[in-house]
Amino acid sequence: MEKSPTLGSIETSDYTRRQLAINSWEFNLKDKVFCETFPEIAQELQDRIDKRNEELSQSKSHILQGSGTSRMVNQIHPGGQNNEAGLLGGALSNIVVVVGFAAFVYAVKYVLNNVLDGD
């Protein structure tokens, strides 16, 4: 997947990107113009959705039976990553940047006041 920053882009995990892509399949299939313009792609998307729904229902039945629980968790969150931790880490880094910038502004203000008062 493309990871280089562009103007107006946001950084998200591969998991989030994949989920957004999957959600776009259903959105595109609801668009009549899309289905009429790209009937082959629309059929391919419908097949993918049907296959994914079948795999999810099988996965749920395995989880309910108590087999392969840890494997299923790793499929839901690849690498055992917790997306909430990513959001918290992003918010925390933003707070640190804002506080750092505020400290810089006050330091500059202090220096300028002392330089002007010293003259």
Index terms:
119 residues, mainly alpha
Indicate the structural class: mainly alpha
Terminal-residue CA separation:
58 Å
Number of helices: 5
Radius of gyration: 25 Å
Which assembly state applies to the chains in this document? single chain
Most strands sheet: none
Q: Specify the overall morphology.
A: elongated
* Mean pLDDT across all amino acids: 79
Beta percentage is under 5%
Task: Kindly state the percentage of residues in helix.
Answer: over 70%
Low-confidence sequence ranges: 76-81
Order of helices and strands: HHHHH
**Strand runs, count:** 0
Give a short synopsis of this structure.
The protein is mainly α.
Structure in words:
With 119 residues, this protein is mostly helical. The protein has helices at 14-30, 32-37, 39-65, 69-76, 83-118. Helix 1 (14-30) packs across helix 3.
Give the helix/strand layout:
Blueprint: H1 14-30, H2 32-37, H3 39-65, H4 69-76, H5 83-118
